[in-house]
Amino acid sequence: MQETDLFVSDAQVEELKKRGYNEDVVPKTAEKRNMNAKNYFTLWMGSVHNIPNYTAVGGFLFLGLSPINVMLALIVSSLAVSAFMVFNGRAGSKYGIPFAMHLRSTYGDLGAKLPGFLRGGVAAIAWFGLQNYAGSLALLILISKFWPGFLNIGGDFNFFGIDLPGLITFTIFWAINVLIGLGGGGVLNKFTAILNPLIYIVFGGMAIWAIRVGGGMGNILAYTPSGDSVQGYAPLLAYFIIINSVISVWAAPGASVSDFTQNATSTRDQSIGQTASLLVAYLIFALSSVAILIGGSIHFGVQEWNVLNIVNKWESVPAAALAVVVFLMTTVSTNATGNIIPAAYQLSALFPKSVDYKKGVLIASVISYVIMPWKLMENSASIFAFLNIIGAVLGPVAGVMLAHYYFVKKQKIDIDALYMDFSKDNSQNPYKGINIEAYIATIAALLISVSGQVIPALQMISNLSWLIGAALAFGIYLMLKKGKK
Known about the structure:
- The chain has 22 helices and no strands.
- The radius of gyration is 23 Å and the shape is globular.
- Helix 4 runs antiparallel to helix 14 (267-300), helix 7 packs antiparallel against helix 18 (382-408) and helix 11 (235-249) packs across helix 18 (382-408).
- Helix content is 67%, strand content 0%.
- The chain is mainly α.
- It starts with 9 loop residues before the first helix and ends with a helix.
- The longest helix has 34 residues, at 113-146.
- It has helices spanning 10-18, 37-43, 51-60, 67-88, 90-95, 99-107, 113-146, 164-183, 192-213, 217-221, 235-249, 251-255, 258-261, 267-300, 307-312, 317-350, 357-370, 382-408, 415-418, 436-450, 459-463, 465-484.
């Protein structure tokens, strides 16, 4: 695949800049495409280990599958995610173009605004709020370990389901992330070399502890949850629900993966690197998450779906503090670059005359606060609902992008036309305006995939929202394009 990758020259880039395109948007030249397989292998390793991911696994354990099947489903899911990331990242690695231009090549220059908003304005803001709340729970544990009385502040105070200590820590952690977003978040990239090995040291240690206190791995694998929370789905359906949820976790970065693959030295490098990264990361995550959640539940005698509740029960303050600090670092690191920054840029793109980057950060941050993200982690079912909504929103976008690039355009993009000169007549430019068929397919699939959230009889559609949304949009778009010929 490497020989088909196309590299623009410095002269071509300079010509595009004369048309008004800045450094962030123009295709990457060969000199700037410096991410090899090793770089992509380390890219996602740390992103798997975050609080919402562990919370999701806590919910998976109540679907009715055995622990070993939950682990296997996570590994299968990693292959599905890596396939999505690799194939949707092909346009970026072949042409060196970012997500914004990948969207333009599919939806048109005006049409790109809707899917861009769904990724940067809806999914990114929602994830920003959820990650902030998840991080605030870790911060609350850290403060309470050194100041136990903090948990009693405010007495019976309740603000739409959150007590005063929780509201204070959420506001503090939210403000920290807002400040980092205002600064651009670039400094966080320097943490990667330290953070990734620290993540595996801490979670590896937690898994060893859980296996020991849980009575051994055999005891953990034999564990069966009980109570009204157990769903009892058929095994195959439970597998698909897990796959859908895991892909929904990656729906936002998967949609905009060209922002990462545009830097690839070759498509082969990004394909090998991303596949190996996600597979190895989820192999380790599958073992550690299941072991920690079940081992901790056995040890403390309470079925826990939230890993922070287990950490909070530890008597060792240094051990709990170290685990919490790693959770906080992971959240801050991924939240700025993956959520608030894309959201701010998208709001700026939608309202270029009135909203700049910093105003975009503030607007997105305020919205992420008022949606009360603590409601998204109230129990093991609420995280599913959140992931299903994200899947319903972004699945259709992914389906259209894949269908357009591979089956309509046969992996061909006219770079000169894509970076149109707005001082000239672009009435015949194929990327001008709105790709109507893409819009119809996206909106129709979105309405169907989100229907399970409002119509109880269609709950199963909601449980498979990304898979159904992507498949429907893919099929509808190709049928519309075929009918137009």
